[in-house]
Write a structure and sequence with these properties.
14 helices, binds ligand G3I, eight-stranded parallel beta barrel, TIM Barrel, about 375 residues, polysaccharide degradation, Beta-xylanase, GH, GH10_dom, GH10, alpha/beta
Length: about 375
């Protein structure tokens, strides 16, 4: 008979439960547990648990996860007859192990397609691709993944449909078909349309038309995902609120799916800026390479507080708020729209320390638990 060392058992149990919710722990996910899920996007290395400090921060603060890149078409479906679920399986296992809400990103998106997909030219081939792609992926994770971005970024800024490889080959029916295929593969999973700038009035109208169209054609759509790649001064709280109200009036959930707030100058905002000009390495475009001045840190904290106050006001309509990354060091905003800058868009700094913005989000809930 095998003798179990009680000391080892205790240590092992402690290690295994390090992510399970503990009431006494002060964290985002615990503070907001009665309001909505608090999520984060995970990089490949975070999914593989390569950094113990990041791993425990993720477990402590967040109860929902999205894969930042590895579930996109080019990674899971690199060739016509080949899927690669190695990292996607690890991502789902990570969420299951830690009892997290698992969001799938993304099934149909014009970007980060595998090269072979870009070459699809006719409707028969594209229809076959969509059926195989959506059915295979959604069925594989049936009952494990809680919600999917079925279609990502299908709209132009004026609310019209983007001329993607999907629209070009299939016409607008591809949108309804995508939602129908996903629902057929997993009737219980929540299905979202996901996009950015959804607070802009013209784009908002485009989303409203889209949701109505999908519903009218018998498709199942459960939510609108507003990415929330925002700035310190825009979009306005009024427009964000109008969008929450407009989308939920359609009978769907609203999720904020990729929240971050840039503090850096944007080349397109500069009057007379020539966007072809090379901004890389220009110190004016990278004003805080070492540290964020306290005045901007305070502005960021105030902006996050205002936004979360609004989210709390409409918590019945909001299913999830997910940050696009765990900490500033991993943010895509360090490399977009200009490569190699130092941005500060999230609640944790590069050393994984909570910023003033973290405190301001937490303070909204203090004394209210
Ligand atoms: O995988 C390659 C690696 O092999 C190579 O060495 C390296 C060199 O640049 O590039 C790696 O690919 C990068 C990929 O992320 C994975 O890290 C790409 O260059 C880079 O462009 C890509 O960026 C991602 C971007 O989507 C692509 O469009 C960002 O990390 C990711 O945060 C961003 O996420 C999107 C959402 O999916 C949809 N909404 C907008 C959001 C921000 O753009």
């Amino acid at each position: 008979m095998k003798i179990i060392n009680p000391y080892l058992l205790a240590i092992t149990t402690l290690l295994l439960v390090n992510c399970s919710p503990k009431k006494e722990v002060t964290s985002l996910k615990n503070s907001y547990k009665d309001d909505f899920y608090i999520g984060t996007a995970l990089s490949a290395s975070q999914i593989e648990e390569k950094n113990a400090a990041e791993d425990s921060l993720i477990c402590k603060e967040f109860n929902a996860i999205t894969a930042e890149n590895i579930m996109k078409s080019m990674f899971v479906h690199p060739q016509k007859d080949k899927y690669d679920f190695t990292l996607a399986d690890k991502f789902v296992a990570f969420g299951e192990k830690n009892k997290m809400f698992i969001h799938g990103h993304t099934l149909i998106w014009h970007s980060q397609l595998a090269p072979w997909m870009e070459k699809i030219k006719d409707s028969t081939e594209m229809k076959a691709f969509m059926k195989d792609h959506i059915t295979t992926i959604v069925s594989k994770y049936k009952g494990k993944i809680n919600s999917w971005d079925v279609v990502n970024e299908a709209l132009n800024e004026d609310g019209t449909l983007r001329k993607s490889v999907f629209l070009n080959t299939l016409g607008e029916s591809y949108l309804v078909d995508a939602f129908k295929l996903a629902a057929a593969a997993d009737p219980k999973v929540d299905l979202y349309y996901n996009d950015y700038n959804l607070e802009e009035p013209a784009k908002r109208e485009g989303v409203i038309r889209l949701v109505k169209k999908i519903k009218a054609a018998g498709g199942k759509i459960d939510g609108v995902g507003s990415q929330g790649h925002w700035k310190l001064d825009s979009p306005s709280l009024e427009e964000i609120e109008k969008s929450i109200l407009a989308y939920s009036a359609l009978g769907v959930k609203v999720a904020f799916t990729e929240l971050d707030i840039t503090v850096l100058p944007n080349p397109w905002d500069l009057k007379g800026a020539d966007v072809n000009q090379n901004f890389e390495g220009n110190p004016k475009m990278n004003p805080y390479p070492e540290t964020l001045p306290d005045s901007v840190q305070t502005k960021l904290a105030q902006r996050y507080a205002d936004i979360f106050k609004l989210f709390l006001k409409h918590k019945e309509k909001i299913s999830r708020v997910t940050f696009w990354g765990v900490h500033d060091g991993q943010s895509w905003l360090n490399d977009w729209p200009i490569k190699g800058r130092t941005n500060y868009p999230l609640l944790f700094d590069t050393k994984l320390q909570p910023k003033k913005a973290y405190n301001s989000v937490m303070q909204l809930k203090e004394g209210k638990e």
